[in-house]
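Let's sit down with a protein and look at its sequence and fold side by side. Once you have written the record down, we can walk along the chain together.
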Amino acid sequence: MNMLICRRRSAARAGFTLIEVLLVVAILGILAGVVVVNFAGKQKKAMIDACRASIQNICTAVDMYEVDTGRFPPSLNALVQNDGSPNWNGPYLRSTTKDPWGQEFQYSQTGDGYKISSQGPGDGSGPITSW
């Protein structure tokens, strides 16, 4: 008989109280809020860093094209497909890439050099350029 009473009491205490459950939910909500705030700005910075890395890769491809052909490419497409230039040893890029925001990179020749740029995130922080 005593065994039966002990088992009933322990079975009744096996669950959590409403206050315990609400306390755990509140703690998880606070932790989730902290995590979201800490990582929200990191995505933008990571996209900007990826854009800069892509620009550097394109600059390397343009430089290789210039070494092989003796001139800068007329467009970024000339890095992927032969535009009829002699001594073309490409492709220098697998494909013309887009920046992390889905926009095409801009390429322009400037006097004795070139400039590669991206419009950037579009939040007023300005373009990201090769120089």
Observations:
- The radius of gyration is 30 Å.
- The beta strands are 106-110, 113-118, 128-129.
